[in-house]
Amino acid sequence: MSKITWKAGTLLAPVPPALISCGTVDKPNVMTAAWTGIINSEPPMTYVSIRPSRFSHALIKQSGEFVINLTTLSLVEAADYCGVKSGRDTDKFAAMHLTPIACSKISAPQVLESPLSLECKVKNIMSLGSHDMFVAEIVAVNVDEKFIDEKGHLDLEKAGLVAYSHGHYYTLGRNLGGFGFSVNKKRLKKLQNKKLAKKIPEKSSLAKPKKKPKFKKKA
Ligand SMILES: Cc1cc2nc3c(=O)[nH]c(=O)nc-3n(C[C@H](O)[C@H](O)[C@H](O)COP(=O)(O)O)c2cc1C
Questions:
Q1: Which of 214, 59, 23 is nearest to 132 (CA)?
Q2: Most Cβ neighbours (<10 Å): which of 46, 72, 132, 134?
Q3: Phi, psi dihedral angles at 133 (to 5 degrees)
Q4: d(CA 22, ligand 1 centre) in Å
Q5: Could you tell me how far CA 210 lies from the centroid of its own chain?
Q6: pTM of this prediction?
Q7: Would you say residue 12 lies in a domain?
Q8: 32: CA distance to ligand 1 center in Å?
Q9: What's the 43 CA to ligand 1 centre distance in angstroms?
């Protein structure tokens, strides 16, 4: 195995092609951002990095609020559209048949069609170069009821979440195990058992080693 070194770049992948809604319910805007993620657990903190030239940049700077809405298979066309059209000249909610609805703690709108929307209040803005990073606290989370199981747990496996990787959108693949499965012998065994292990590509460390084929020595 060998690697070559390239010049520095933003090749981290996959990242979430999130729908960032802002403005108000009456005058909403939404843009797609892949430069977003979690940066603290308690209090729950996030960021979104936005170029100052974006229409959303001014709206978020002014209100100090935005919503991160997760993108699913049924929202992927909207996510792409909201990432190439500007709210300066297009009502993206209307164009993509998205519904802006009120949040619980902020006046920015959330996207009804998204299964999970994080209400965020800006705490700090850092100018990093091409982008300004809005560091924010997540002040409330809105979840589509149909993804809450009988025990009250969030289960987004069937939501069809979408990832963005090097310029392309993908749905998520198989569930490969839960947190800590590598040290939980029972779970590991279950995973390595029959069905799943067969489907996992040979190179994966989870795949069972193949038996070497036996060749009869030619006389
Ligand atoms: C998949 C994807 C990810 C994007 N990520 C970002 C991002 O993280 N930050 C950013 O400033 N622009 C990003 N963009 C571009 C903006 O979404 C785009 O410029 C949009 O038109 C801005 O909308 P607005 O002018 O209504 O704010 C992304 C576009 C796509 C398609």
A1: 59
A2: 134
A3: -95, 120
A4: 13
A5: 35
A6: 0.88
A7: no
A8: 5
A9: 27
Domain of 158, in residue numbers? 18-171
Domain co-membership, 38 together with 94 = yes
Nearest-atom number in ligand 1 for the CA of 17 is 1
- DSSP letters, 166-215, are TTEEEE-------TTGGG-HHHHHHHHSHHHHHHS-TTSTTSPPPPPPP-
Residue nearest to atom 31 of ligand 1 (CA): 83
60 and 159 belong to one structural domain: yes
Nearest-atom number in ligand 1 for the CA of 87 is 26
- Same domain, yes or no: 167 and 188: no
Span from the CA of 130 to the centroid of ligand 1 (angstroms): 13
pLDDT tens for the chain, residues 1 to 219: 999 999 999 999 999 999 999 999 999 999 999 999 999 999 999 999 999 999 999 999 999 999 999 999 999 999 999 999 999 999 999 999 999 999 999 999 999 999 999 999 999 999 999 999 999 999 999 999 999 999 999 999 999 999 999 999 999 999 999 999 999 877 777 777 755 555 655 455 454 444 444 544 444
Task: Output the ligand 1 site: residues, CB below 6 A.
Answer: 17, 29, 31-35, 49-51, 54-56, 80, 83-88, 131, 164
Measured in angstroms, how far is the CA atom of residue 44 from the centroid of ligand 1? 24
101 and 199 inside one domain: no
Q: Which atom of ligand 1 is nearest to the CA of 36?
A: 8
Q: Please indicate, yes or no, if residue 3 is contained in any of the structural domains.
A: no
CA-to-CA distance for 219 and 32, rounded, in angstroms? 67
